[in-house]
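Bench notes, afternoon.
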Amino acid sequence: MKNQYSLWFGKILTLLIFVGIWQYASQFYSPEQLPGPIQVIKGIQELADTGVLWEHIQVSLLRFSVSYLLAVLVTVPLGLLLGWYTWSWKALDPLLQILRPISPIAWFPLAILWFGIGDAPAIFIIFLSAFFPILLATVSAVRRVDALYLRVADNFGVDKWTLFTKVVIPAAFPQIMIGLQIAVGTAWIHLVAGEMLGAQSGLGYLIVDSRNFLRTDWIMGGMLLVGLLGLGIHLLMGFAEKSINRRWGME
């Protein structure tokens, strides 16, 4: 219990030190250059009172949810199959290694040409940013399943489908989850970038639009909300991971 209290004390102390440094640094700049924490909170409250803030948050979360879930539904099954059938992975690996280093932002001009202005280009960019981390982690997880598990299952006469669903997938899940968590971070980052480049709503658009009005407090407020929402998504992922691990008897 003492360790738990110490951990929370350390977290709160870290945040207080950060806010204190921020407040101290803001004294050396004008509010238009670096607003203090109180000014940023007032700016967030101002946006919230008009209702604009909630609209941008809802749009960003909806875009992220659709894109990320689509990436998971496509890449996890694909990664499981590519990891299980090694010949298919060897055939596709050169192409994937060529496409993987290309930044999702580099695809944005083509996304605008293909999908126009709106939600579709941002969703496409977010999907791409989540695609490769999940795919590579899933393939690697399947290929690294301990051979002992496979031999034991074979000795008990387990059929291929049961082996794949009851042994391989649970054994590969911890590493797959690492890929999912990495993809959450990259997808959330590129969501904001995508909204900055071509969308007319969302937190990324809010940040860019606030720049046009020289409202630095709104800019930093948008950045703060991006970070807080990212933290919330990370915590939800951790909760989901623990729930699945308990279900499979891994915790």
